[in-house]
Design goal:
Helix content: 10-25%
Number of strands: 12
CATH superfamily of the largest domain: Vaccinia Virus protein VP39
CATH architecture of the largest domain: 3-Layer(aba) Sandwich
Largest sheet: 7 strands, mixed
Number of domains: 2
CATH topology of the largest domain: Rossmann fold
Strand order of the largest sheet: 8-7-6-9-10-12-11
Distance between the termini: 45 Å
Radius of gyration: 17 Å
Structural class: alpha/beta
CATH class of the largest domain: Alpha Beta
Shape: globular
Length: 280
């Protein structure tokens, strides 16, 4: 039986899973897109050979990325997703009835098309929600044309990988882009981004927080349990003054959550005895 191998931290740590079927391969002008059906994780999405999501635990990843900041904002009305072409972030945002506008800017239409065809459970029809507008373009240009600020900006983009040059998302991990995000937030708004594996790649958190601390008034990070990412995923947030709440809001009961509970929500803010600890 064939096996799929992908990096958790460059060649220093690799994961291997048994493959039932190579469902799809597509080359776009930006990257290679692959979908596999695996024994351990169900269907998985890889971009340029790096795992982006797995059927097993994608709800954990997306719920932590979206709802922890969303439940920290009083009556959010406008949200922006940068990347996230698989639609998982959109699915979770669409659960919030207060949102009136949800914009997504994704540079690679191929990710959207492949995900809708082969991973439809991820978006669960969210692209058809009347509040959602999909913009296939570069995020820099999109932000330059924004006139109405957002209460939440979610960056669901690929990592800048250790020992690899020319990452598609490299320009989005810069002072210039994050300053544009700051200018596009409301006074109460939050910016959140995935921040790689906090146990095996803690340098990712520190690099993002160094940038956030230069540009924003408040910042921090939290974590979620994501087995297909090597155990954990980190998330960094920033704001003009608002804080991310550290207890699960009562409103979460109406959101049909699979991963976030009072226990996993509390774990998001607990120091582990290994990996990243107490960055600020």
């Amino acid at each position: 039986m064939a096996h799929l191998q992908f990096p958790i931290r460059s060649t220093k740590l690799l994961m291997s899973v048994e493959v039932k079927e190579h469902v799809c391969h597509r080359e776009t002008e930006f990257q290679s897109i692959d979908v596999y059906d695996t024994e351990a994780f169900g269907r998985v999405l890889l971009l340029d050979g790096h795992i982006q999501l797995a059927e097993l635990d994608e709800r954990a990843y997306h719920e932590a990325l979206v709802h922890i900041p969303m439940l920290s904002i009083d009556d959010p009305q406008r949200a922006l997703v940068v990347g996230g072409g698989d639609g998982g972030v959109l699915r979770e945002l669409c659960k919030h009835k207060s949102l009136e506008t949800i914009d997504m800017v994704e540079i690679d239409r191929g990710v959207v098309e492949v995900s809708q065809e082969h991973l439809p459970f991820v978006s669960s029809g969210a692209f058809n929600d009347h509040r959602v507008s999909l913009h296939i373009q570069d995020a820099f240009g999109f932000l330059n044309d924004v006139f109405d600020p957002y209460d939440l900006i979610v960056m669901d983009i690929t990592d800048v990988y250790e020992e690899e040059d020319g990452s598609l998302s490299e320009r989005l991990f810069t002072d210039e882009f994050h300053n544009d995000c700051r200018d596009t937030l409301t006074k109460r708004g939050l910016l959140v981004t995935q921040a790689d594996n906090n146990v095996f790649c803690p340098y990712g958190i520190q690099g993002i927080l160094d940038t956030f601390n230069r540009l924003f008034d408040k910042s921090g990070w939290y974590q979620a349990l994501i087995p297909s990412f090597g155990g954990f995923s980190a998330y960094c947030w920033a704001s003009k003054g608002e804080e991310v709440r550290t207890d699960l809001a009562y409103e979460a009961k109406s959101l049909d959550l699979a991963y976030l509970t009072p226990v996993t929500y509390a774990l998001a803010f607990e120091d582990l005895p290994f990996g990243a600890r107490s960055f600020s």
